[in-house]
Design brief:
51% strand; four-stranded antiparallel beta sheet; mainly beta
Length: 207
């Protein structure tokens, strides 16, 4: 086991529920660690990377100009189980909860023009993006192609990968490269392919 001291400085702003991540060198055989602040255990997510560990946690509240010192003990597994970020894969979607409460869902079904996050629930239980357009809305709901939180672009290789009008392009989900739950951090890493209406990448008229 090895012990590392980590200092977090707030800078000019107060930090509330602020995510923090640090890389710590460690031997190849070490993949676990615990984080403490004084006598208090701090939930942290540990991901093994080349040459060491990527450690992530949440700073609850740190005043502007203040600093906080943490002790990281590598090679020691945390005791008990904390309901942190939980990632759960279903059919065409991945649900994400924080502390046992639903936070968002990554939707990637084949019927969608492109993957998106919906709903997105704020810290007081209220959705922070508007509802999605339905077929019944037709064009009655303005910007019906806006899908909560999503990635798109007006033109990609001559295809419209922004709107959902006639002849629009699509972003097709291919696979997940990471689906990770953790005491402090979760990860959803998805790989998609941007395609035209005929299903292959590239501008119309080319093969």
């Amino acid at each position: 086991m090895a012990t590392v001291m980590l200092r977090v400085q707030a800078g000019p702003h107060r930090r509330i529920h602020c995510p923090v991540s640090a890389f710590v060198s460690a031997e190849k055989t070490i993949s676990t660690a615990i984080l403490t602040q004084g006598r208090k255990n701090v939930p942290c997510s540990v991901r093994k990377e080349r040459g060491g560990l990527q450690v992530s946690w949440i700073v609850d509240d740190l005043a502007a100009g203040a600093s906080a010192v943490y002790t990281l003990t590598t090679g020691k597994a945390p005791g008990g189980r904390t309901k942190g970020v939980e990632v759960s894969k279903g059919r065409g979607e991945v649900a994400v909860s924080i502390g046992g409460t639903h936070f968002t869902t990554y939707c990637y079904g084949k019927h969608l023009a492109r993957p998106h996050l919906y709903p997105v629930i704020g810290p007081y239980g209220d959705p922070v993006t508007r509802r999605l357009a339905t077929p019944e809305d037709g064009r009655g709901l303005d910007h019906h192609h806006h899908r909560s939180i999503w990635i798109s672009h007006g033109e990609v290789n001559s295809w419209d990968n922004w709107s959902e009008g006639a002849g629009h392009g699509r972003t097709v989900h291919k696979r997940f490269e990471a689906l990770e739950s953790g005491p402090a951090v979760g990860r959803v890493v998805s790989k998609g392919v941007w395609v035209g209406t005929d299903g292959w990448q590239g501008p119309p008229g080319k093969t």
